[in-house]
Amino acid sequence: MLCATVAEKTPKKAIQWARRAREYADLLELRVDHLENPDDMDRVLERVPEPLIVTVRPVSEGGHFRGSPRKRHRLLAEAVNRGVEYISVDQAIPLTERENIGGIQILTYHNHRETPADLSSLLSRYQEDEEADYIKISTYCNNLNDAFRLMDLEPNGTRPIIVTGMGEPGLITRILYRKTSSYMTFGAANPGNPAAEGQPSVRVLSERYRVQKRDPSTDLYGLIGDPVSHSQSPRLFNELFNEHNIDAVYVPLKMQQTRTLGRLLERSDFQGASVTIPHKRTVIPYLDSLNPYAEDIGAVNTIARVDDRFEGYNTDARAAVETLIDCWPEEDVSSEMENPLAGTKVLMLGAGGAARAAGTSLIRAGVDLTLTNRTRERGEELASELEVSFLPWEERETITDLDLLVNCTSVGMKPMSDLSPFPEEHLSPDMVVFDMVYTPAETRLIQAARDAGCHTITGDEMFRRQAHRQFRLWTGIHQEENEGEPEN
Ligand code: NAP
């Protein structure tokens, strides 16, 4: 079941959001402790659709209720008397008091700091509680490993369990709850007002991730990286899976340490992933093989399960050149010219994973490439590997007669969106400016280049092409009409 948590200050807003959320959710949780006046509970209960969970969580348990324990118990008893289906309780309420309150009780353990080491013993202790009908374990996931431990939790007793991971790494526990022993999952009724950190809206859980339809046979794909919350990939891939009726879900997997990947690769439902900052190189030792293009580049942005082995690919490389060729100014392309890049003078900004991929394919396309990077050592190292010239970062504007400027740095990406990686006064109208940053696509560099009269190519053009190549590696399905050879 998908439950929408309503955590509003006023009865009017609580009723509004409860009604809207019911379109996506199977039941609602009313957080009475979020109401400015908890005595407004009755007014809300009269007007919102059933079934319901009523929660009056005190500050000591991580909630907002500041009244006395007596008042809290009275509110919960009132909710039960009104016929509310479930109430959320905790062990701060004495057993005898909980017996008096009655109703179907969800005994909740909350930990807003961490996911304790021995979850199984914790759950066993809760299973011994005489008044509990359901047991909810909701803990903060400091990393993806915490989320996997929560997902592995078995009821180990007679009461059904509900498991929720808070924080960004905990998102997978909410999306894949039907692959775990969890009886339900929670989302925010109001997307702008989640009750817990990392809680997505019920609309996103229902429409994008289709959480109610997932089951143990659903294939798992994901985005491995840090940060991942800005990414467009979950929206795009989940739409593609739905469009093609593929029983698969694509989940953002905030991964700080590459070693967590081992845990993911052990899962039989895991079929593949996109790989982003900072893991494009560090994932390589975990894979069974690299395709020749990825090996040549030395960076992987795609993992695919092939015959029970994990293979690494790089779709950025070909997508970068494909984007440039497709979006090159029309007046510069004659009908018989297949590759307008050949012989062009190019300055590439950056020496990270994207630069490594784009640099390799630009050289293959026959450009005259110069590389610059803020950290000289890293820039010189890549320039020497690619066998191209290196220009110190402080001198990047001194290069003359440029045909193409390619930004492969993350400057311009949120939260650096008010910065540009190239001095704007040195942009000239005969330059093509390609910015790989796609969040946002309209970067400061793109705006300045447009103002200077340059032909501009935005990162979303490349993002779409590289993602479609990933989708093809996972499913064999082509999306782009002009999509060239696979990554080899
Ligand atoms: P990365 O491996 O972390 O490399 C980051 C690069 O940005 C490094 O060269 C770094 O220089 C430079 N940089 C970061 N902050 C800087 C600053 N304040 N001033 C100057 N340089 C700075 O990241 P990546 O994977 O290469 O990705 C780079 C960008 O490309 C990201 O925005 C990513 O989203 C985008 N990208 C887009 C697509 C697409 O499909 N459109 C595909 C791949 C990547 P140092 O070496 O000095 O740290």
Task: Describe the structure in brief.
With 488 residues, the protein is an alpha/beta fold.
Name its key features.
binds NADP nicotinamide-adenine-dinucleotide phosphate, elongated, 8-stranded parallel beta sheet, 16 helices, 488 residues, alpha/beta, 20% strand
Description:
The strands form three sheets. Strands 7-6-5-4-3-2-1-8 form an eight-stranded parallel β-sheet. The chain has a six-stranded mixed β-sheet with strand order 10-9-11-13-14-12. A six-stranded parallel β-sheet has the order 17-16-15-18-19-20, sandwiched between helices. The model has no long low-confidence stretch (mean pLDDT 95). The longest helix has 17 residues, at 459-475. It has 488 residues and is of the alpha/beta class. It has helices spanning 11-21, 41-47, 69-81, 95-101, 119-127, 144-151, 171-175, 202-208, 233-243, 261-265, 292-297, 315-327, 353-364, 376-386, 444-451, 459-475, and strands spanning 2-6, 27-31, 52-55, 86-89, 104-111, 134-140, 161-166, 185-188, 219-225, 248-254, 270-275, 289-290, 302-306, 309-313, 345-349, 368-372, 389-390, 404-407, 432-435, 455-457. It is built from 16 helices and 20 strands. The chain starts with a strand and ends in a 13-residue tail after the last helix. The structure holds NADP nicotinamide-adenine-dinucleotide phosphate. Residues 277-278, 280, 316, 350-355, 373-375, 378, 408-411, 413, 421, 436-438, 459, 462-463, 466 line the site of NADP nicotinamide-adenine-dinucleotide phosphate (NAP).
